[in-house]
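Shapes recur. One chain:

:::
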Amino acid sequence: MKLKTIKISYLFIALLSVNFLSCTDLEEQVVDERLGSESSSPENAIAAAYGQLGDGTFVDHGNVFCLQEYSTDEAILPTRGSDWGDGGKWRALSEFTWDASNPQIKSAWDALNFGITKSLTAIQAIEKSEVANKQLFLAEAKGLLAFYTYNTLELYGQAPYRDPMDVNAEIVVRKADVAIDELITEVEGLLPNLANVGEQSTHMGRFTKQAAYALLAEMYMNRAVLKNRYSNSFNFNETAVNGAGTDMDKVIEYTSLLIDSGRYKLETNFFRNFDISNDNGTELIFAVVQKATSNSLRNSSNSFAYMPLERAQKPSPDNRGTNATATTPEFYHSWDGNHEDPRFHRHYQYGDGTWFMNDGTDVSMPATSLVEGTGKPWFHFNRGIQAGLQYGPTILASGAFEMVNGRIKVNPLKMEKNTNLAVDFTPEYNFDNPLQAVLSQNQINRGARVFKYEFDPSFGNNGNGSVNISLFRLGGIYTLRAEAYFRKGNTSAALADVNILRTTRTREALFNNAPGVALTSLDEATLVKEIAFETYWELVRRKQLIRFGKFEEARTAKAVTAPTRRIYPIPQATIDASNVFTQNDGY
């Protein structure tokens, strides 16, 4: 991939500069392919807008992920002994003790606002140009603007806008309750000028018609929440923006356009969607395309795989985990009675047929799987939810894996920061103070871990990788349609969609490729669980819990909270730097 120097701007000091369309030099990476000629300013500008998707925004655990997941039952980052204290900024998201000065709330706000700015800059550059495919690129840039704006409104309730074609235009603050209808209308208006995926050199990393359908389904599903954030009873069946049917009818319409298109197919191996090789997958509709190369790791993140791995777990002699992020007992136990679900866990099989059982019976693994770029042995940990004692390779003083008969020796693992403590991922935390996510040095192994995304050990960099990060994929689209059917009272149709997901996924050959088991009935509590079984750790759980009225409930390290916590505060630095934004209620 080619790196390009482009000009972009920032609105406020830490947000976007006051000179909204003035210049600052940054390097941006074109998403997977060149969009036009080498010197094209519109190309550079739209490349920057796409690049922001993967410049930490949706691929690093410390931005949108932490706001959407650490505030839920699916993920938690506790302080572990001397690690991950960081002024309490991480555990505050699980404890619901965050305020307007929380660095991660500011980080995600800045990242999303950079996306808004870069999209507006791209719109300006394209409008002023005579570039080939002008209408296509303009529609894509406007689609990206809608995507960044929607995500900002959903998290913060407010988002900035300024007419990119008028240098004297005032900055406007869009408010979620009004802007959600405007965004839906804007994206629906883009559809005629967007390409179908695969046409006009488009792919999963471009904002296509199919990406627009997915975004529209998502916006219609959450429209009732954005219009009345603190309600005790959302009106999900309000008349749609264009007057044709209801919100849930539109969710069903747009999801069905994707499901019935023949362009996508559910993967039988669920974890294929989160593999390094998911370039050739069949489910990704819109994704952050990542390509880690020896020349550039700038826009490639392995954060979702790196964070839950214990430091003693070594995918290669050059790599390790960081013993941070885990799931909660509530989410772990939601799988009770369903551990045979192909989405819960999957064993890895090496090329010679050896399975990694991770149960104390393993003696060694082949050394024939090699890390690209180094040629060193690659140890593959299992995927899905990991609990209990953990096993794997250990590193000799020479820096190489301990070997036995030319194979990687498998040993019981000890915590790197406390070698008297086994790597035993116990689902329960039993925090000394139940409302503080703090573990002593003797407790740092607690918490079941999520190994959903494949760890990429290429080039010996723990924090980078080539897994394309899904923003919309077919499995998630099925869950949206199932929820819409359920909210319309069509429980049989909702159950059918849930069972398509359950029975299409299959276990590994170790279990004769057995499919998941269909449900015979569906109620709201079951639907909430089934949606999470399909979409866990995909930056959507907070929205789901809010829709189902479960976000405020007490859970691990968290007491019952007020509805005002359904929205994050505008960062204090932004409030201090401008008089445009007003602080959200409760902060």
User: Anything to note?
Assistant: The chain is about 30% helix and 10% strand. Confidence is low (pLDDT under 50) at residues 1-40.
